[in-house]
Design brief:
Gyrase A, domain 2; 42 strands
Length: about 800
């Protein structure tokens, strides 16, 4: 199809979109987001430094407006928005971002708190001396130049880079389908690693790591563990765990305070303070009386503790719950010969060595050409000075310059270039002193030419030059390592600083949990028994109790089959009379979830098992060790059908017997060995067959020959029956009658001295000792346990936990 001014070609839009997107992707990858492995710079960074060099903004000169730099870059080199240029310029000057800043700033260039820099019309800048090292030799034919976007001038494709900038300052970039995240390193260590590879090209990663142990972040701090470092050194990928630096100080009033002086790389200081304040407000980090940010150019965040608080415990809660401990995901990805490539540390250093080799070779050839050209001129001067009278005579007798040049070239072995240089000599250069200068210059030039030819003729000599220049340059900028590296692997363990002491965990019927030190019970007056955890609401009581060590684990199972694991010391501490904290604030459970069961264990012993039972009669056995790698957000303990839910979980030894009680009053007793061990995220097998459509499982209990099974019906009648009344069957059957009733309200394994609480539909709660309920046969209706009003019914029973002060 043709029109008057254009030609239209029908094309498939899929092909156009595919081609256009690939072109765009390659443009982002090569010309915007990824650094070059040779000089470690992205195109916009390189253009800024080159534009500042051409503007004369060297360290020895005065500052100039950033607006001028941005305008120069946009005008000649970077056809994009001014914000991208100025943001890059600012980043190159921020000392908390760059381990070795390339730009010397003057004015407001932002802060570690995330404050934005002032507009570029207010700020000024010039190159740092270390940036001049990256540009040194750029006019000596060391690198290739390419036309700029409008072909009005040229720009360098890469900088000579007298220092390994990519690893020295690191780089971050997100391209299309790939990303790079390179941490900064200490320059002195980098130079030693580079020289090691020059001397021993077959050096291993282990040898390199002896001189280059890992990243060195500008803000200091500490790296926790070397596993992530070793990973990225070997493969180009790894996760480095960073921590801030903090210490405790004693105050005059007897209190102590934690002072944070260094924070992890790329952490916003103001956001860190807000996060700490939020955790203090939510009582996640208790025991803090004041929080102050006293930072100026240096970080100083003060966390003042209440009297008697242990600083180390609070400090490590800060590590656990705030960005004071963060991760840096290392990806060593850069452009190698204009192609993105993920490299290990050795490959990256070799890229730089090869670049410097090419730069030194090109510079040496350039200097040799220049020296030979000058020597050629000086040789002509020497011929002229040795025959000075004759030269003067020939020149005086000539009619013009061309005739003089022709006569001189005819009589003496001179080139046209030499002859022109002789004819341009000034008279004072014919004096004896000037003749000596020419002789001395010529001798020095011969030495220089020999030296340059030696470099070009010997690979070993060339590598010696690279090493020598690296060490000489680095001596000006080498400083001490700021980031300490701790060899310990893994996360900090809170139990390392928390005493392993006895405590009592109580959970109330309404879902309030607390941890109470055993010592708080011993300090009470000696005497009779009392319900643990006074301080609940009038209709609340302690339903679960665990005597545990602070280093033990508590497992919480929800009705949807999820499992949460918490260390006992993570449970909020309370007094004997305090209410405790709601479980919803301790665990990350959703609104439609509630806790079905809790189990306390010392460790994840593979000799122990968990048996779970659902409302639909599905049972599953899983080895306890499967829950060893728990997460804060919970694990899948059992796969639950949409119309089902978990009712109870029991801890077993692998050879126990179990009994399931259903709402219709049926029961089935079977051996635990009938169940095979299954993984966490599995459904389980049939434990009981429910004959009635409206029947469902009330609970599952472990058979205890020293206890009895208490069952209460909705009609308020109940009984205790010895476990031997329930004969052993195979798993999966419909079972036998446990109680004759219209519906079971609840069942518990109880002892003679236990007490229970019974709940009715109308909100009545009656407390009763178990011994008042008779032990009778399995198929009986039982005795009256509670007097019910009209249209009221029993809906549940729970055990009341109590403890003697001395027993605690």
């Amino acid at each position: 199809m043709y029109t008057d001014k254009e030609k239209l070609i029908p094309t498939n839009i899929t092909e156009i979109m595919s081609t256009a997107y690939i072109d765009y992707s390659m443009s982002v990858i090569v010309s915007r987001a990824l650094p070059d492995a040779r000089d470690g710079l992205k195109p916009v960074q390189r253009r800024i430094l080159y534009a500042m060099l051409r503007e004369g903004l060297l360290r020895s000169r005065s500052f100039d407006k950033c607006a001028g730099v941005v305008g120069e870059v946009l005008k000649n080199y970077h056809p994009h928005g001014d914000s991208s240029v100025y943001d890059t310029l600012v980043r190159l000057a921020q000392k908390w971002v760059m381990r070795y800043p390339l730009i010397d700033p003057q004015g407001n260039f932002g802060s570690l708190d995330g404050d934005p820099p002032a507009a570029y019309r207010y700020t000024e800048c010039r190159l740092e001396r270390i940036a001049e090292e990256l540009l040194r030799g750029i006019d000596e034919d060391t690198v290739d130049f390419a036309p700029n976007y409008k072909e009005s001038t040229t720009e360098p494709k890469v900088l000579p880079a007298a220092l390994p900038h990519l690893l020295m300052n690191g780089s971050t970039g997100i391209a299309v389908g790939m990303t790079t995240n390179i941490p900064p390193h200490n320059l002195g260590e980098l130079i030693e690693a580079t020289c090691l590879l020059i001397d021993e090209p077959t050096a291993t990663i282990d040898q390199i790591m002896k001189v280059l142990p890992g990243p060195d972040f500008p803000g200091g701090g500490m790296i926790n563990g070397t596993k992530g470092i070793e990973s990225y050194m070997r493969t180009g990928r790894g996760i480095v765990r960073m921590r801030g630096t903090a210490h405790s100080e004693q105050l005059k009033n007897g209190k102590e305070q934690i002072v944070i002086t260094e924070i992890p790389y790329n952490v916003n200081r103001a956001n860190l303070v807000l996060k700490i304040a939020e955790l203090i407000s939510d009582k996640v980090i208790p025991g803090v009386s004041d929080l102050r940010d006293e930072s100026d150019e240096n970080t100083r965040i003060v966390v003042e503790l209440k009297r008697g608080e242990i600083p180390r415990v609070t400090m490590n809660k800060l590590f656990r719950h705030t960005p004071l401990e963060s991760s840096f995901g290392v990806i060593l990805l850069a452009l190698d010969d204009s192609r993105p490539k993920q490299m290990n540390i050795k490959e990256m250093l070799n890229c730089y060595i090869e670049h410097r080799r090419e730069v030194i070779l090109r510079r040496t050839r350039f200097q040799l050409r220049k020296a030979l050209d000058r020597a050629h001129i000086l040789e002509g001067y020497k011929i002229a000075l040795d025959n000075l009278d004759d030269f003067v005579k020939i020149i005086r007798s000539s009619q013009n310059r061309d005739e003089a040049r022709t006569k001189l070239m005819a009589k003496y072995p001179l080139t046209e270039r030499q002859t022109n240089a002789i004819l341009e000599l000034r008279l004072y250069q014919l004096t004896g002193l000037e003749r000596e200068k020419i002789e001395a210059e010529y001798i020095e030039l011969m030495k220089l030419i020999a030296y340059l030819e030696e470099i070009l003729g010997s690979e070993a000599r060339l590598l010696e030059v690279i090493k020598g220049e690296l060490r000489e340059t680095a001596e000006k900028y080498i400083d001490d390592r700021r980031t300490k590296i701790s060899p310990e692997e893994g996360e900090f363990r809170m139990e390392d600083v928390i005493a392993n002491e006895g405590c009592i965990i109580t959970v109330s019927h309404h879902g309030f949990i607390k941890r109470t030190s055993v010592s708080s019970y011993r300090s009470q007056k000696r005497g009779g028994k009392g319900v643990i955890g006074a301080g609940q609401h009038d209709d609340d009581f302690v339903e679960h109790l665990f005597t545990a060590s602070t280093h033990d684990f508590i497992m919480f199972f929800t009705n949807r089959g999820r499992v949460f694991v918490e260390k006992v010391y993570e449970i909020p501490e309370g007094t004997r009379i305090s209410k405790g904290r709601s479980l919803a604030n301790v665990l990350e459970i959703s609104k439609d979830e509630h806790i079905s069961s809790m189990i306390c264990v010392k460790d994840f012993d593979e000799a122990l098992h968990l048996v779970m039972c659902t409302r639909k009669g599905v049972v599953k056995k899983t080895n306890l060790k499967e829950y060893r790698n728990y997460r804060k957000g919970g694990l899948i303990g059992i796969n639950i059908d949409d119309d089902d839910q978990l009712v109870n979980v029991k801890l077993t030894k692998g050879e126990n017997e179990l009994v399931i009680i259903t709402h219709a009053g049926m029961s089935i007793r079977f051996k635990e060995t009938d169940l095979r061990d299954q993984g966490r995220a599995t459904r389980g097998v049939k434990g009981v067959t429910l004959k009635k459509d409206n029947d469902y499982v009330e609970t599952i209990e472990v058979v205890d020959e020293n206890a009895a099974l208490l069952i209460c019906g909705e009609n308020g009648q109940g009984k205790r029956t010895n476990f031997d009344e329930y004969r052993l069957q195979s798993r999966g059957g419909s079972g036998i009658i446990a109680i004759k009733t219209e519906g079971v309200a609840g069942a518990l394994s109880v002892h003679e001295d236990d007490e229970i609480m019974m709940f009715t539909k109308n909100g009545q709660a009656v407390r009763s000792p178990v011994k008042d309920i008779r032990v009778i046969g399995r198929t009986t209706q039982g005795v009256r346990c509670i007097n019910l009003g009209e249209k009221d019914k029993l809906v549940g029973i729970s055990r009341i936990v109590q403890v003697d002060a001395d027993e605690a």
